[in-house]
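Fold this sequence, please.
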Amino acid sequence: MTMQKSARGMTRRELLSSGVTVSAALVAGGGFIAHSTESWAMETTGLKPETMATILQVARDTYPHDRIADANYAIAIKGHDEAAAEDPEFAEMMESGVRLLDALARRKGNPGYLATGWESDRVALLQMVEDKPFFQTIRGGLVVGLYNQKDIWGQFGYEGASFEEGGYIDRGFDDIAWL
């Protein structure tokens, strides 16, 4: 993975011809993270792009849903980057949490958390830090940040609030197919 010094102010053509290579699903560098096969990118302002890429993988490993796109996880964790831009102590907590995960991964023979290939191995690393404020902050933020995104509700079978539609008695109360 090649890193850039700055991607801010670049045109799309300049970015694509900049030499950023893709060796994994996420590309981190120059103030942004992007997905190699999905069409999204997220600018980072408070945390290093590599840190945000790791936090995104932590989010996916904490609440794994194969049908949910990485873009939805990126939306869910964006608030951590914004908080880090305003609060240096928060930024340090997140950066040091990622450094800790990387150090634990190196003890297991991997170059870092993101390079740990098996989900079960990454989950084992997360279990080692599950009592740390770093992990609890990410986990707690995901409950609201991920599951409050209306565009993924249908993938869980949730039709949304029914109050506006007259309530659940007339809409969804008895449509359970698995009983």
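Residues 1-8, 14-24 have pLDDT under 50 and may be disordered. Residues 46-151 form one domain.
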